[in-house]
Amino acid sequence: MQLKKEKGQLIVLSGPSGVGKSTVIAELLSQRKNVYFSVSYTTRSPRVGEQDGVNYNFVTRAEFERMIAANELLEYAEYVDNYYGTSLKAIQQRLDEGTDVLLDIEVQGAAKVRQRCPGALFIFIIPPSFEELSRRLHRRNTDSEDVIAGRLEKAKVEFREIPNYDYLVINDKVSGAVAEIEAILTAAECRVDSRRSILRQFA
Ligand code: 5GP
Question: What percent of the chain is predicted at pLDDT more than 90?
Fold first, then answer.
């Protein structure tokens, strides 16, 4: 049963670059209603096929630093020489109207959200093996060998943060990863705390 929620669920999804998060997220959003994907701000250059305002809001370093100074970001981090951050205003409005909000962010940003938003749900997504992550980054064919090496090193550091997350999803097949995330979100929706509004009539 789909109930109108009083407040949306904030969902944080982290996982190393190249694990296939974007594909999993695209599939999840096509299946699940009432989820808004937070389009991050970044100073990195668009990859082939990426669109401004869809995959990211691509901004200059100066503009990003202005946003930091103006307190416009819920969280931000520097990742492989670029800034990435989440606009507070864009997500607050959705949560207040009862829409779930999905953030695709790395571990430093997730740690900040953990401090600021105690009710958020934290999911980490991993590949079936480290070798497979390396294969996927090479197959993507968009980054230089140096950048790939940097991303693999970063992944090792990120894996150490997994114990701070609530759920671990394995992206072997996209459909399997999506099914696991669907199950997590459905379980969260069934929590007594999430269903306070319907409970009132039984009081
Ligand atoms: P990519 O350059 O591969 O698109 O993303 C690099 C990393 O930045 C990924 O781990 C992604 O989850 C993370 N990322 C994307 N947007 C944000 C954001 O708004 N905040 C933070 N902290 N990380 C982000």
Answer: 82
